[in-house]
Amino acid sequence: MSLGVKRGTVSLVPYQPEWEQLYEQEKSVLSVLFGSTALDIQHIGSTSVAGLAAKPLLDMAIRVASLPIGSAIVEQLRAHNYGERVNRLGPGQLVYVKGPEERETHILHIIPDDNPDWHHKLQFRDYLRTHPEAAKAYEFLKQELSRAYGNQRSTYTHLKGLFIQQVLLRIAE
Questions:
Q1: pTM of the model as a whole
Q2: Which residues lie closer than 8 Å to 118 by C-beta, 6 or more apart?
Q3: Does 27 have pLDDT greater than 90?
Q4: What residue spans of 35-131 are helical by DSSP H?
Q5: In Å, how far are 10, 90, 112, 135 from 126, measured between CA atoms?
Q6: Dihedral angle at the C-alpha atoms of 42, 48, 49, 52, nearest 10 degrees?
Q7: Lesser CB count within 10 Å: N end or C end of the chain?
Q8: Which residues pair with 96 in a beta bridge?
Q9: pLDDT of residue 88
Q10: Could you tell me which residue, 148 or 91, shows the higher pLDDT?
C-alpha cells in the first residue's frame, strides 16, 4: 500500500508495516536537509504505532533549537515537494506537508526545543505503543469519527484531540 490522502479528508487504512521503512527513508532525507539544525527527528502519529489503523500519511516531527528555520532549509523543503501549511497548533511550530493537495504523503512538524508539544507528541505515541487497550480505544474512536466526519478533517482532528488530551492528563498524574 502506498501513502497518500486528499487534503481535508479522512480515510483510515489498516496498519502497514512498510510505514516504518518509509519513515526511515524520509528521515534520511530530512537529516541531510536540516543538518545540525535538527536536534532530533521522530516518527509520530498513528503510522508510528504498530497495529493501529491510520490515514496513509506519515507524521514526523523535527526538534530544532528555535524558530524560524533558515531560508536555505525552506528552499530545500520546497525542492523536495514540501509546502508550508496553515498551522492550527499555534505560532510555536511550523507545519509542512509533502505532496500535492490530491495526494499528501507526509506531514512534518518543526518544533522548537522549548515547545511542550514536542514532548506531548512523543508521550502520546509511546503511551499507545505500551498500552494496547488505549491504542484500540483510539483506533475505534478514529474509525467512528472518520465515518461521521470523513470530509471534515478539522472536525475529525479536533474531536480526536480530546482523547489525546485525556491521555496526556493521565500520563501527567
A1: 0.91
A2: 61, 63, 111
A3: yes
A4: 71-79, 117-130
A5: 23, 23, 20, 10
A6: 160
A7: C
A8: 84, 108
A9: 64
A10: 148
